[in-house]
Amino acid sequence: MNSKSLGFTLVEIMVASVILFAVLSTVSMVYRGAILSSTKAAEHLQINAQVQPLLEQIETQVRAMSSTNQENLTFEGQSNQVKFEVSASLIDFRAAPDRFNPDSGEYIELPLKYKLWRIHLQLSYNNTNKSFTFTQLGWLDA
After folding, report:
1. Taking a C-beta distance cutoff of 8 angstroms, is the pair 138, 66 a contact?
2. CA distance linking residue 35 with residue 43, whole number of Å
3. Per-residue pLDDT tens digits for 114-131
4. Which of 11, 49, 117, 130 is the most exposed place for a label (fewest CB within 10 A)?
5. At 67, is the secondary structure helix, strand, or coil?
6. How is 88-115 classified by DSSP, letter by letter?
7. pLDDT band at residue 66, thresholds of 50, 70 and 90?
8. Contact 61, 75 (CB under 8 A)
9. For domain 10-139, is the CATH number 2.20.25.110?
10. Neighbours of 87 (CB within 10 A)
């Protein structure tokens, strides 16, 4: 009989199979990670796209509320499938700096007019949540 065989041995096939499955599992894990990252990035983009219009709405609400005696404001809603919650609380209520009257040589105390608000904005889309905290200035209408 001829000692040369024309096929692979069982050990060679097993080693090749282990290498193949290791490569396939690594590639599938990388692909899964890329899909998850892509989904998460799309959700953040969806949320970030709603921030500017919401800031304009919040600014309008705060300026309107500054003419009242309210010290807290909360409202919620949904914009393009992004849910939002806004809470505003009054931080400070002050007048403009005193003015110097050169004719009389005295300082003129001005009335309280400017309100500083702390705004907390919470946005959520699917399983992604984003939170923003900032201040907004409002004033009494003269």
Report:
1. yes
2. 12
3. 999 999 999 999 988 999
4. 11
5. coil
6. EEEEEEEEPPPEEETTTTEEEPPPEEEE
7. confident
8. yes
9. yes
10. 15
**Model pLDDT for residues 82-97, shown as the tens digit of each residue:** 999 999 999 999 999 9
Domain boundaries, the chain: 10-139
Closest to 132 measured CA to CA, from 48, 8, 70: 48
Could you give the CA distance from residue 70 to residue 118 in angstroms, rounded to a whole number? 13
Residues in the chain: 142
CA–CA gap between residue 45 and residue 14 (Å, rounded): 46
Q: 33-59 burial by CB neighbour count: b if 16+ within 10 A, else e? A: eeeeeeeeeebeebbeebeeebeeebe
Q: What is the percent of the chain where pLDDT is above 70?
A: 96
User: Containing H/E element for 9?
Assistant: none
Phi, psi of 17 (to 5 degrees): -65, -45
Give Cβ neighbours of residue 89 (< 8 Å, ≥ 6 apart): 71, 72, 73, 117, 118
